[in-house]
Structures are given as structure tokens and as C-alpha cells.
Amino acid sequence: MKVGIFDHVERAADRSIAQTLDERLKFAAAADEAGIYCLHVAEHHATPLNLVPVPGVYLGALARATKRMKIGPLVYLLTLVSPLRLAEEICILDHLSNGRLEVGVGRGVSPYELAYHKVAAAESRDIFIDAFNCLSAALTNDMFSYQGPHYSYKDVPMALRPLQQPHPPFWYGSSNTTGAAWSGEHGMHFVANGPTDYAKVNIDAYRDALAKRGGPEQPKPEFKGGAAIGALRHIVLAETDEEARKLAKPNVDYHVGSLNWLRKMHAQNEAQVRGLVPRGMTFEEWEKDGMAIAGSPKTVLAEIERQADKLGLNYILTYLFFGNLTLEQALRSLELMRTEVMPKLEKM
User: Concatenated DSSP letters for 147-215?
Assistant: First the structure.
């Protein structure tokens, strides 16, 4: 099993944006040294949940702050940008990182964020699929033309080409079976979110579609079966369970507030605040559902192993730096992950 890191780059209550970005780059360099497989960053708009709504700018900095670890968006919101412009950005980042770019794609889970960009949530899946087909054509041709319901290009020279051929690997993160199955049909690598039982339904949908397809489009030999199949989990490590849970609770609760910030502004009821993923509102609920894991290395390892067995995971996407956690606290979790947990997971 490989270990990755996910990050929204969330606004903390007690530090500036500049300090947050500086700390994240230091954390990324430490993750690189620790042997983390890939650092994935989110794209969100008009919310303190995410301070890098233009992820390519941040990924350019990450490309030079790290040397071995893969990097990439999870996900680029294809509904909000020109496929041609994004294809060129992907090519730049693939070269800046010396071929370490992994490209997650999606349509955008928040109808409020889409609406700010004048995109109707009901139309977003069709727009996304059209954008993905166009992006794929742009990345795999020296000159491309494309005609679809939302995007049209004719005889566009692609002076920039990706370093990885035919293109960097595609990833998909999904909280529903429709998206999970679509990503499996297209042979992408996959990460699920949400409570363990909920994540299992989506992973099963992905795995069934991938099997019918015959396997991943770009197999990764480092993952059993060639496809990365992961789950996102917020993790806090300390010397004891008590210390870790004491630290995790206020930071998970703060993070839930960031996740729900836009929803609370727009929602008409609690169901809308909770969103599409059936997640709780407190650390205790997240821990019960398997979304948050806090404890000593022994406790954390046991829970990851339990979920990996139930879900069929070969990739655990750890979220180690969130809420108001300090750089030092996040680095401690990373160090315990490196020394006490990762060596055992690598043998799974």
C-alpha cells in the first residue's frame, strides 16, 4: 500500500495566507523526504476552505519545492476553464515537475461555486464530459480539432506537449456511483471519500466498471492490479491515543466549519448544509464513520488496515495538515507516519 497526502490548503484562524502557503511548502518538502507517494491539492472557489483556487500556480511552486514525490490536482474543475488553456498548463507543470504530474479531473461538487462561475449544476456533468474529451484530444495531438456541444476548436497547434506520454495519468475523486463508474469506464485511478460504508459502494462501482473495461488506461505497476484505489482520511498521530484525539477534535470541528461555510450561507435546511456526502458535523461522528483517525501509530495502523481490508484499498490518502494545526503538529504526524506506520503499510 502506498501513502499519499491530500490538502485543501485551508485558511487557519491564527495566521496569514502568506504564512499558510510558506508552511505548506515546508510541509511538502518534508513529505517528499518522507517518501510520500503523491501530494494532491483541491480546487475550490470563494471559500476559506481553499486558498489555492488556481491550483496550477500552487503546483508550480510545489514542483520546485519537491524532487521525488508526485504532485497534482484532485481535482481540476473542468467545467470552469478552457480545455485548451488547461492542456497547456498541464504540459508546463509536467515539465516543471520532471514528469511527476498526476491529473485529477472533476465537475465540481458545490453548486454554489459553480453558480458563481455562471455554470448550472444540472448541466455540469455534460459540460465536464465534453471538456474531458476535448482536453484528451489536446494532450494527445500535435495539432488538434474538436467539435462538441460545449467546446469547439479547429486546427490548433499544440506547441507544448506533456513530458509523460501520451499524457500524465488521470485520477478521479467521487462521492457518488455515477462518477465512480464513469471513471472506471475510462480507466482512471480512483479515490473515494465519506464514511466507510458509503465509500465502499462507490469503490465497488468503480471496480466493477474498471473490470468490464479490462483495466486502467495507464497502469501503475506500484499498485496491485495496476490501478490506484484509495480513500481520503483525516489523520492525527501522537504518542498516545488520548493526546491525538485531544488534538484532532478541535481541528476536525474547525475543518467541518470550513467545508460547510458556503453551504451555511446558501442552504435552506440542515440536509443542504451536510451536502451530498453523508458526513457528520463533529469529530466524534467522523471518527465513528472512519473519516477521521486519531491515535498512536499502533491505533492508526490498525484502523487503516481495517479499512483497507473492507474497502480493498491499495492507497491511503492521508490528510495530515488541516484546521488550525500548526506546522510542527502536522510534521509530528508526518514523522510518526514515516517511521511507525508507512513501513508496515508498504508490506501490505
Answer: E-SS-EEEEEE-----SSSS-SPEEEEESSHHHHHHHHHTT-EEEE-SSHHHHHHHHHHHHHHHHHHTS
